[in-house]
Amino acid sequence: MDAAFTAEQHEIRRTLRDLLARHTGPDAIPAAVRTAEGYDPALWRRLAGDLGLPGLALAEEYGGAGCTTTELALACEETGRALLPSPLLATAALTAPLIAALGTPDQRSALLPRIADGTLTAALALPGGSLATALGLTGDNLDGTWAGGGRAGGIQAHGEAGERRLYGEADRVLDGHSAGLLLVAAHAGGYPRSRTQLFLVPGDAPGLVRTRLTALDETRPLARVELRDTPAEPLGGDDTADAAAALADAGRTAAAILAAEAVGTAASALERTVEYVKAREQFGRAVGSFQAVKHRLADLYVRVEAARSAAYHAARDPEAGPLALAQALEAARITTGEAVQLHGGIGFTWEHEAHRYLKRAAGDELLFGPVHRLRDHAAHRAGLFGPATTASGVLHGAGVR
Question: Per residue in 263-294, pLDDT tens?
């Protein structure tokens, strides 16, 4: 695939890769994930202040760079290569687009410039235990059952206009323990006007309890968010329509960005493995000189490049995001697994870099997959098994569109 990137896009990738090569490594990552924030605050300030990463896809009127999803995807491909722990994904890919799409002018003016300059990090708190379902990636999110659906469970919004309070909890909230702002999905309106709304909750709001959870992948810090009559501000105002369709739209864009990040992870794991088998000798010759090893590496290269092409296409057309994400997650899982095998005994040690890449791939599929459900839902939306539907539930007739 000829990506035909612009000179500016190539420069974003090159500059970020050089910076991360100097500031990340085998020792830097463990040190960063063990901080209270779960990432290196000084490096985050450089990424935000010098490179403007959180504002890449935000409009210039809010202090952003006015770029597209493609630029943010390229940046995340580089952070995926370095396994960088940072709030970039939760803030710029999951939360900021929803604020930009649904927020009132006052909300956008108050929040987006602070997100763009990195002084405000944000997290998306979605109840139900499945981020992928809530974003419409692995199933239909229109019925709102994942948000509580007017019954016990999930997160419920109570009170009159201007005095809304939230009660409930959300698990596995990416960067939820340290974010300065939470965007919380809650069920509102009761049975008469049942709908799912998004609410803005400051990180220091009363009644908010956040607990960092133990995660398979330390570079993806997860949290449990508990809300006990916590005051909240409706995103877009009290009369905002059901947010399920907006979440599904944001989910497809986020899937494209995640696909690029997963490709970066797979590509880096493959490159490191190639370097290792070229240097590691067995039976008097380099391991990489054996034909069987060459075949395995060649198969991995084809798989990674195919996923890269799909991710680049999805960055330009987010409708393809879920399928690209499925292909990228599968490529990352298989490539990192083979990387551990080809490193031999050292690859099985929990502290080795090969194992960190494997944990990133496995953790991402647990959080945003699984792959077979991503493909199944995309096939249903495309009409492969009957009438096609969009996030708004409108039928388009059978067949692939």
Answer: 999 999 999 999 999 988 788 888 888 999 99
Residue that is written with structure tokens 């493995």 in the block: 273
User: What is the value of pTM for the model shown?
Assistant: 0.91
> Is residue 175 within 8 Å of residue 90, measured between CB atoms?
yes
Distance, in Å, from the CA atom of 116 to the CA atom of 121, rounded to the nearest integer, reads: 9
Strand, helix or coil for residue 171: strand
d(CA 365, CA 328): 10
Extended strands (E) in 114-256 = 122-125, 155-158, 165-174, 181-188, 195-202, 208-213, 222-231, 233-234
Place of tokens 């930009």: 100
What angle (nearest 5°) sits at the alpha carbon of residue 358, between those of residues 14 and 46? Answer: 35
Q: Which domains does the chain have, with CATH numbers?
A: 7-120 (1.10.540.10), 123-242 (2.40.110.10), 248-382 (1.20.140.10)
Amino acid type, 171: D
Of 250, 140, 260, 145, the C-alpha closest to 195 is: 145
Q: pLDDT (tens digit, 9 = 90+) per residue, 40-95?
A: 999 999 999 999 999 999 999 999 999 999 999 999 999 999 999 999 999 999 99
Rounded-to-integer distance, Cα 78 and Cα 263, Å: 9
Give the Cα separation of 354 and 38 in Å (integer): 21
**Degrees, nearest 5: CA angle 216-218-220:** 90
Burial class (CB in 10 A: 0-12, 13-18, 19+), 224: middle
For 64, residues 6+ apart whose C-beta sits below 8 A from its C-beta are 52, 55, 56, 57, 58, 112, 116
By C-alpha distance, which of 141, 137, 140, 146 is closest to 375?
137
Residues 6+ apart with CB under 8 A from 104: 236, 237
